[in-house]
Design the sequence.
C-alpha cells in the first residue's frame, strides 16, 4: 500500500484563504491568516528495520542517547522514553525554522506525566543504543511527518469581545487586534475552523493515532499557559504503539519562545 500524500504548506495556505472568503470573512482575511500557526504533524506506523536504526525518529521503543545524556530517573525510578526525533526529518517542513535542521530531541515522562523532560543533542553527537531491561518500554512506532497549518481556535481567548488582551495564554491575543461581531465569530468557528478540522484531522476515537504535532495552538491551556509560551509538542494516545495519555487524550508540552530560540529544551514543561 502506498504512503498517503499530504498537501504542501502553500496548498494549505491557499485552502484556508478560500475557506475564509467563502465564510464571508474576506474583510478580515489578513488578520485571520496571521493567526494561523504553521505546524508539523506526524503519524505512527508499524515499525520496520529503518525505524529502529540508530537515531531514527520513533514513538516509544528504546532511545539512542548521546554520551552526555544519561537515562533520566524520577522519584520512582527510570522515566519512560516517549519520543525520539531526528530533526533532519523535519527540515523544510516549518517555514518559521524554529528547530535546528539537524540533531535530536527526546521526551521522557513518568507514568502520570508529573515529571516530563525534554532533551536535545546537536547533529554531531555520537549516539549509543540503549539496552536495559528495568524499563517498561512503549512498543516502537515509526513516524511520518508532513506540514500542517492550524487556524486559531474560535474561543473568546482568540476571537471575540470578552477576553482581555493581557489574559495569560497567548502573547498575541487575536481579540486585541480583531473583534468579530457574533455572527462573524460563529461563521469563523463553523465555516472555517470546524470545516478545516473535518478535512484535515482524523476522527477522534479512544486510542487513536495520527494527531501528534509540533507547534500550533493550545486553546485549552489558557490558565496554565504564560504569555511567552509556545506549543512545542502534542503527543496523542496512539493505537499503533499502545501509548496512552490519560483517558486517551493528548499530552501538551510548552516552551517559551526565548528558550526555543536558545535551544534550551530543558525548560520545556508539560501542562494538563
Sequence:
Amino acid at each position: 500500500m502506498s504512503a498517503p500524500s499530504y498537501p504542501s504548506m502553500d496548498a494549505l495556505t491557499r485552502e484556508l484563504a478560500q475557506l475564509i472568503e467563502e465564510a464571508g470573512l474576506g474583510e478580515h482575511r489578513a488578520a485571520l491568516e496571521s493567526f494561523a500557526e504553521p505546524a508539523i504533524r506526524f503519524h505512527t506506523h508499524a515499525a520496520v528495520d529503518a525505524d529502529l536504526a540508530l537515531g531514527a525518529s520513533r514513538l516509544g521503543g528504546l532511545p539512542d542517547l548521546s554520551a552526555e545524556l544519561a537515562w533520566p530517573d524520577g522519584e520512582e525510578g527510570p522515566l519512560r522514553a516517549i519520543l525520539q526525533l531526528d530533526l533532519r526529518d523535519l527540515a523544510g517542513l516549518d517555514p518559521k525554522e524554529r528547530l535546528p535542521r539537524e540533531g535530536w530531541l527526546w521526551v521522557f515522562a513518568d507514568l502520570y506525566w508529573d515529571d516530563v523532560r525534554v532533551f536535545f543533542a546537536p547533529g554531531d553527537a555520537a549516539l549509543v543504543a540503549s539496552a536495559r531491561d528495568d524499563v517498561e518500554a512503549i512498543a516502537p512506532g515509526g513516524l511520518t511527518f508532513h506540514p500542517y497549518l492550524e487556524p486559531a481556535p474560535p474561543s473568546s481567548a482568540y476571537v471575540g469581545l470578552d477576553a482581555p488582551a493581557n489574559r495569560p495564554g497567548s502573547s498575541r491575543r487575536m481579540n486585541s487586534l480583531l473583534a468579530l461581531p457574533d455572527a462573524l465569530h460563529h461563521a469563523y468557528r463553523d465555516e472555517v475552523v470546524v470545516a478545516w478540522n473535518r478535512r484535515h484531522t482524523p476522527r477522534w476515537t479512544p486510542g487513536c493515532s495520527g494527531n501528534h504535532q509540533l507547534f500550533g495552538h493550545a486553546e485549552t491551556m489558557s490558565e496554565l499557559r504564560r504569555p511567552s509560551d509556545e506549543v512545542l509538542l502534542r503527543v496523542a494516545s496512539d493505537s499503533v504503539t499502545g501509548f496512552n495519555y490519560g483517558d486517551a487524550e493528548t499530552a501538551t508540552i510548552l516552551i517559551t519562545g526565548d528558550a526555543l530560540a536558545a535551544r534550551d529544551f530543558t525548560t520545556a514543561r508539560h501542562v494538563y
Summary: The first helix runs from residue 9 to 22. The mean pLDDT is 86. Helices lie at 9-22, 29-34, 182-200, 257-261.
